[in-house]
Write a structure and sequence with these properties.
The chain is mainly α and 100 residues long. The chain has a domain of 68 residues. It has 4 helices and 2 strands; from the N terminus they run E-H-E-H-H-H.
């Protein structure tokens, strides 16, 4: 079949190093699929890492503000994180635990 240039502009604009895809048989097709999948998975992982970092910083800010200025801060003291985790479990946010 030869070289396919249809998706090249999309991949090139996305920063993918490979600007042409060789479809010289089933092995070429499989390799093109693997390369494309790996490239976009890397993009997704970087976006997720950035989002989680921002999420954690915002949550940390909320906790620090509450710890310093919260009305009932004396009531919780050292158990603040355990209490937060307990209350979050009730609403099941999934990815937030006491450790975070």
């Amino acid at each position: 079949m030869g070289t396919v240039f249809v998706a090249c502009s999309l991949l090139k604009n996305s920063g993918m190093e490979k600007t042409e895809i060789q479809l010289s048989g089933i092995n070429g097709l499989v390799q093109a699929i693997q390369d494309t999948n790996q490239f976009f998975l890397g993009k997704v992982q970087r976006q997720i890492n950035t989002s989680l970092t921002l999420r954690n910083r915002v949550i940390g800010y909320y906790i620090a503000e509450y710890d310093q200025y919260g009305i009932d801060r004396a009531e919780y003291g050292q158990t603040l994180f355990a209490k937060i985790a307990e209350k979050l479990k009730a609403v099941k946010p999934g990815s937030i635990r006491e450790r975070h």
